[in-house]
Amino acid sequence: MAAVEAADMRAPAWRGGFGRLWSAAVLSGFGDALRTAALPLLAVALTDDPLLIAAVTACGYLPWLLFGLLGGAVADRVDQRRATWTVDAVRGLLVAAFAVAVALGHASIALLIALSFVLTTLQTLFDNAATALLPAVVDRAALGGANARLMTGQRVAGGLLGGPAAALLPAVGTAAPFAVDAVTFLLAAALVASLRTAPPRSRARPAGSTLRREIAEGLRILARDRVLRALCTATALCNIGMGALIATLVLLVTRRLDAGTAGYAAAATAYTVGGLAGGLACRRFTARVGRGRGVLIAGAAQTVALVVMGSVRSLAVVLAALAVFGFMGMVWNVGTTTLTQERSPAGALGRVSSAFRTLAVAGAPVGALLGGAVTAAWGPHGPALLAAAFFALSVTALIPVREPDAGAFPAGPGRGAGG
Fold first, then answer.
1. Which of 147, 165, 194 is a domain's end point?
2. What is the largest CA-CA distance in the chain?
3. What range defines the domain where residue 7 resides?
4. Is residue 159 scored above 80 in pLDDT?
5. What dihedral angle (degrees, nearest 10) is formed by the CA atoms of 207, 208, 211, 217?
6. DSSP 8-state symbol, 288
7. Terminal-residue alpha carbon distance, the chain
8. CB atoms within 10 A of CB 300
9. Domain total in the chain
10. pLDDT by residue (tens digit) across 371-401?
């Protein structure tokens, strides 16, 4: 475990490009929070049809299922720095055009659905390219600290700053949240474009290599590596539970606990604060227990927190459980992202990352539907207990990750370490 501990104790240097990459991520997180809050409010103002309103959110998942694997394969073929800033620039221009349409009164529910679909489609390339870009900016030994700082900064920007701003900006005008979001995209693009990274090493491809074959290679790498395979399975199970919890948390707080909208706001704040604390403590926590065991402990603690949420009727206790849930969720996210970066062979990180994300994201909409059905059958406490069951299954799936060599880089390109 010594090598993993040393990796987790080294913090990334702000110089050399990481500071600009962090600033770009924070700006994007702030803009995303504004747009995410504004889209459903605008949808409700445009239509009373619940199916159309739900379609705006559904389009946030669908492109990952359709294009996630393709986005990863493309990310491995191109210059990740250039792909990242180009996608942000395109998204900035699209959102700016949408803000103009809203300001002129030309917004429609069809335009909202189209915007949500196109932005998420572009995100399938952006997220995979950004994941592959980070190891080119910071030393491999500092990846854990870099991921923790990136995710913590995004949580601050999106949760603590973006939330209040999203509530205030509509008073300026319906188009204001989208205009600010467009500016954050363009500023983030400029920051990433200013990075000076080494040109990507060209990877020799076999004769006749196609995107389909390269996507299949990424899936094979994920399937053969016992640690990544376990992490992906566990994350997919957790996302089923998360989908059920997120879709019905408002019912748990406002109906079962009778805490009203103020209680629901307090619940969101508790989760955000827990996540921030987790980001700050993550590096030392994983240095003590190891990256793999840290993810395993996080999953076990989240299972207990979910059982508490579904079993008690005290708002204070539920808020404490949500804080623990958010804390350990940050440990989980940092650990899984860093292990994926460490264990993926050179030139394949985009495809492995996209395979991981696509398979994991698929669980969220399934969980949301299950959460609604369980609430109707058992009451608003049921989804939390259902989520606890899925998290318990994920902990079982994580057993291969607990071993000391979980963070070790697999030998040889194009193949996993075991399986």
1. 194
2. 64
3. 1-194
4. no
5. -60
6. H
7. 21
8. 16
9. 2
10. 888 888 898 899 999 999 999 999 999 987 7
